[in-house]
Amino acid sequence: NTLHHVQRLNDGMRIRAVIGGFHLLSAGRERLERTIAALRSLEPDRVVPCHCTGDPATAILLDAFGPRGTHGEAGLRLVF
Length: 80
Description:
By secondary structure, the chain is mainly alpha-helical. It has three helices and two strands; from the N terminus they run H-E-H-E-H. The chain has helices at residues 2-9, 29-42, 55-65, and strands spanning 17-20, 46-49. The longest helix has 14 residues, at 29-42. The model has no long low-confidence stretch (mean pLDDT 93).
């Protein structure tokens, strides 16, 4: 919802990266699948889950996004 709101505020501008703690530590498989589907619909260049995502969910997200997934950590630099 937040990302769709950001797009509306910016005339539908493409979202280049989704970076942050997604707070999915206690998320079940269904919620993770919905999250992945929602992120895929936005077609970001990068999905960067950080520590608040939780290790199990981070692993699933990184697997789902392949080379577009990057593990977020302090000091990470991304160039677009």
